[in-house]
Design a protein that fits this description.
Layout (H helix, E strand, L loop, with lengths): L12 H9 L3 H14 L9 E5 L5 H9 L4 E6 L2 H11 L8 E5 L14 E5 L9 H10 L5 E7 L5 H11 L5 H13 L3 H10 L6 E4 L4 E7 L1
Parallel strand pairs: 1-2, 1-4, 2-3, 4-5
Antiparallel strand pairs: 5-7, 6-7
Helix pairs in contact: 2-3, 6-7
Organism: Thiohalorhabdus methylotrophus
Protein name: Trans-aconitate 2-methyltransferase
Keywords: Transferase
Length: 221
């Protein structure tokens, strides 16, 4: 099945709210736990983590809680999403260690302070041009930075996409089920991601199919 791109940004407040209200407890908790397992050295010191496509802010909060010394710069191009993230972070004990930034990947600039890790969850499938993510990571993170990117992977057919939505989102609102289905159709396959990484000179990063609907890119630059 060919890829069917979707809009890059969740700019509509209703769409952003439906995503924020969905039950991603198990997925997000697993994301942070596996990140910690793969990169245990980040538990020491005051590492700077960059979360690309932070959405409503749940993962930046979880990262800051799991790594008490870490600082998290959480970036999203959607104002609607960042408004929800601000509400989530406001008043939290970790608030002083989380910086929210409204910016697209293309606008990210290199900085003088070293980035110790780049994480991203469910951003890649939104991009019209997938290599934009890998080019941004190369631009802002230097050698030794950890990379942990989780995303959907495209199923073999529309029928299989519908089955996945029915299995994992049957009780969710119609808006979220529609977005989930469209996101599955817009996702890349592991083979496509490996090709993108090779073209970007990042073929040292590993690509894994970690579930019937997710892929993971992980490693060290």
């Amino acid at each position: 099945m060919d890829r069917i791109p979707e809009p890059e940004l969740m700019d509509e407040p209703e769409q952003a709210r439906a995503y924020a209200d969905a039950d991603f407890e198990a997925v997000n908790a697993g994301f942070v736990a596996d990140f910690q397992r793969r990169f245990p050295a980040l538990a020491d010191g005051r590492p700077l983590l960059l979360d690309l496509g932070c959405g409503p802010g749940d993962i930046p909060l979880r990262l800051a809680r799991a790594l008490p010394g870490a600082r998290v710069e959480a970036v999203d191009g959607s104002g609607a999403m960042l408004a929800l993230a601000r509400r989530a972070v406001s008043g939290a004990p970790e608030e002083s260690r989380i910086t929210l930034v409204e910016r697209t990947l293309q606008a990210l600039e290199p900085r003088s302070e070293a980035i110790h890790a780049v994480v991203s969850n469910s951003l890649l499938h939104h991009l019209h041009h997938g290599p934009d993510l890998w080019e941004a990571i190369k631009r802002v993170a230097g050698p030794g930075a950890a990379v942990y990117v989780m995303d959907l992977r495209r199923p073999e057919s529309r029928e299989r996409a519908a089955e996945i939505v029915a299995e994992y989102a049957a009780g969710e609102p119609e808006q979220l089920r529609t977005d989930f289905h469209n996101s599955l159709l817009a996702a890349f396959t592991p083979e496509e991601v490996r090709t993108q990484l090779q073209a970007a000179g990042l073929d040292g990063l590993e690509v894994e199919a970690v579930s019937d609907r997710h892929l993971l890119v992980a490693g060290t630059l």
